Amino acid sequence: MSNTPAYDALIARSRSQYHLHHLAMIAGVDRETLMPPGGAEARALALAELQQVMHARSTDPAIADLLKAAAQEELDDEARADMREMTRGYTLATALPAELVEAKGLAASRCEYEWRAQRQANDWAAYLPNFREVLRLSREEATRLSDALGLSPYDALLETFEPGMRGAEVSRVFGAMRGWLPGLIAQIRDKQAKESVIEPVGPFAFEAQRALVREMAEALGFDFTRGRLDESTHPFSGGVPEDVRMTTRFREDDFSVALFSTIHETGHSRYEQGSPRGWLGRPIGTWRSMGIHESQSLAFEMQLARSQGFLERLAPRLVHHFGAQRAFEPENWVRAATRVVAGKIRVDADEATYPCHVMLRFDIERALIAGEMQAEDLPAAWDEGMRDLLGIDTRGDYRDGCMQDPHWAGGAFGYFPCYTLGALYAAQWFATIRRATPDLDARIAAGDYAPVFDWLGANIWSQASRWTTPELVQRASGEALNPEHFRRHLQARYLTSS
Amino acid sequence: MSNTPAYDALIARSRSQYHLHHLAMIAGVDRETLMPPGGAEARALALAELQQVMHARSTDPAIADLLKAAAQEELDDEARADMREMTRGYTLATALPAELVEAKGLAASRCEYEWRAQRQANDWAAYLPNFREVLRLSREEATRLSDALGLSPYDALLETFEPGMRGAEVSRVFGAMRGWLPGLIAQIRDKQAKESVIEPVGPFAFEAQRALVREMAEALGFDFTRGRLDESTHPFSGGVPEDVRMTTRFREDDFSVALFSTIHETGHSRYEQGSPRGWLGRPIGTWRSMGIHESQSLAFEMQLARSQGFLERLAPRLVHHFGAQRAFEPENWVRAATRVVAGKIRVDADEATYPCHVMLRFDIERALIAGEMQAEDLPAAWDEGMRDLLGIDTRGDYRDGCMQDPHWAGGAFGYFPCYTLGALYAAQWFATIRRATPDLDARIAAGDYAPVFDWLGANIWSQASRWTTPELVQRASGEALNPEHFRRHLQARYLTSS
């Protein structure tokens, strides 16, 4: 008989939840990729029913007793890490009263649903009352989580996406970047203004694009025996580690959407596929945090796939799939794939300007949750931030301004910083890989990505949730999060003459 | 406040189960159509976990109390029909001890899994011990169900697939058919032996086949806004009424596999899509029985789509999709699509010889469950039955003899009769439609299938589980199940000179 019965009982519960989670993920993937419109309502009810089953299980008061009992058992280090995650999970699951969860869910669904048309119509006035209600309930959620976790309200929200990260730490990092990023962007744009670039000209046949992205996913190590690549309106990586479902989307006039979104999702997917098999179903077996997940997709998409060596190898493959055109001459293609352009839209941004979009949102959402800013103050703060950070005028353009993202409409405050944390982590990983493999660029240029995959596998994928995020960063790279690696990366890629 | 609180509580539970069932169906469809091999184990565990949740809910002792309380409430006729179904469901769900369900599940999984290779190898000796264990546990299951339902053991199994049907009734019907079917088959074969038929010659491009079957599904009224047509190794119709997923499979050398399987599954699918929306989630809202379900697929595939008028209209569409060939001349194509050939394989059988395959299996499985026949007696009984019914020698050929089907290996005894009950019901529906629409054949020949769809919609689809099967048959056709309609159908189609 086991001498850790309480811990074992908790792990059995964790595995049961993992199995139900599997069904939620697959039904969610089906919804985005295959489901006909008539199935939407029944699917929503079905998933809500499953959520209810899972929520009841995750808030079962017996878990509190088991956690107490297991804390007295003789546990090894990995089991103690399981306990850390289970304690956090139980605290989060039980922190919110059911009525608040339901009220916020309804308000967010409504706001997000109506936002689609309101955004199209540039109708801030219609959006405001819905948004105000979502903000009100999100503040209440933050307060409740704050009480349960002993963190500030904003930090409590951040904790749900990026455990261990605090607003003050994000401030420190983003504050440093604010000092050098706008100037660096200006330097890059000055340099690029002197270079001529030929844009690829379509149409690019869907079949050729499909073959290209499949080839890319295979070259980047996606395991098709344990996953699929399908299509959806918005690319994503979903499913479960045993069966990872990633998607892309195809535009006939622009193959780079499918190409780079596939590479991005392949990064997410390899993180999932690289989870230790023996840990699956255990709390330590799951991906670490949103920022770490994004660091994998950006390691693939930005660090690896937009490097000069990778892009130069890609050029002849473009010729192979789409036929020759001048834009695919290697030197031009490298320039075309690394243009830096300040624009209004976050999701269209290049890696240099992207953090500006995030820093703006971080400042605003922190003030909104703290009650220092009200819903109606959002457009003015947005316009001011976009002018300061990127020199762009967004006045009166809510559609491509403060109404462009679904996150806040859906009540997800504390999520945005993870995108840029991911970019910073990715740069830090590559700096570490480069120290261990000084000829990394030559290896990549020769099509040998093993140094990247081996390092990520050993230091990130195989570690899953074994460590807290700060511990993971320290162990993997030998230091805490350091935005300096990102600065050096931008300088090396965009300001060193090649 | 409702004055039927117990009934309402039962309906709420029914709806919850319906929502979870949705996820099981979609995950099952995904498994057959998309899932990569590496996902199989995790999917099996996930579905088993959901089954456990659903089983715990369906056997909750509180249901017994609610059923008792609701029986005292003032319920309308539809609610009383709900009560009939819930009572039956609870009795079936609670009749079997969990250990028996688990033991049978394991034995059946093992037997069915190993059967795949054993069948290929024609290895009866290796199959026998697994099959003996499945039979032993199926007998025990039958005995337990028999106690709970107050039926004979075989009838208790039949009740799980075709509620209200009894072995004695099947015997009566099959006994009558045994008197005339073999002679009728001989007559048909004599007649057809004098006719020359040209078989269509492939290859038939997959894209052309896809276009053909999509066109067929649309012409037959499949609603693509509430369903999909995909591909799988074995065609099926799954999903839920709000989102019906049917599949087909393509063989390059024979388009008729995809064509007729799509038409067959469209019949199943329209039954589902025709469920009354207001009843979904209620016990009366579900499909009635396996036999009634099969009557819909066979009404489409056999009664409608192999009629002379339908086939003649189809001929120019084949030319359109595949190009002209002599086999597609209407008179020839009608003959090619209505050949009667006595063969060893049930799933390849035409509608005239198919019932012989089922009658054989019915006699054997009834004797097996009654303990009048043992597992080792199966091959001899099979050989004898095939010789008597179809004049075919199967001695030594287990692979295409008694080992050809997965049903018994999987522990499904009492299922086979439903196939032929479906064919008999379908003939009875068409006889009824023809009485109401004397020019039915001319309407079909003109491409007007409304008389068929309208009648099925009003009499079968919209009735769901409102009535017991015998009640449904009586109400729809004005008489009890009568195999005479099937005899007349075969005579009219195959022995009347056209």
Automatic annotation (TrEMBL), chains A, B:
<protein>
    <recommendedName>
        <fullName>Metal-dependent carboxypeptidase</fullName>
        <ecNumber>3.4.17.19</ecNumber>
    </recommendedName>
</protein>
<feature type="active site" description="Proton donor/acceptor">
    <location>
        <position position="265"/>
    </location>
</feature>
<keyword id="KW-0479">Metal-binding</keyword>
<feature type="binding site">
    <location>
        <position position="264"/>
    </location>
    <ligand>
        <name>Zn(2+)</name>
    </ligand>
</feature>
<keyword id="KW-0482">Metalloprotease</keyword>
<feature type="binding site">
    <location>
        <position position="294"/>
    </location>
    <ligand>
        <name>Zn(2+)</name>
    </ligand>
</feature>
<keyword id="KW-0862">Zinc</keyword>
<dbReference type="InterPro" id="IPR001333">
    <property type="entry name" value="Peptidase_M32_Taq"/>
</dbReference>
<dbReference type="GO" id="GO:0004181">
    <property type="term" value="F:metallocarboxypeptidase activity"/>
</dbReference>
<keyword id="KW-0378">Hydrolase</keyword>
<comment type="similarity">
    <text>Belongs to the peptidase M32 family.</text>
</comment>
<dbReference type="Pfam" id="PF02074">
    <property type="entry name" value="Peptidase_M32"/>
</dbReference>
<keyword id="KW-0121">Carboxypeptidase</keyword>
<feature type="binding site">
    <location>
        <position position="268"/>
    </location>
    <ligand>
        <name>Zn(2+)</name>
    </ligand>
</feature>
<comment type="function">
    <text>Broad specificity carboxypetidase that releases amino acids sequentially from the C-terminus, including neutral, aromatic, polar and basic residues.</text>
</comment>
<dbReference type="GO" id="GO:0006508">
    <property type="term" value="P:proteolysis"/>
</dbReference>
<dbReference type="GO" id="GO:0046872">
    <property type="term" value="F:metal ion binding"/>
</dbReference>
<keyword id="KW-0645">Protease</keyword>
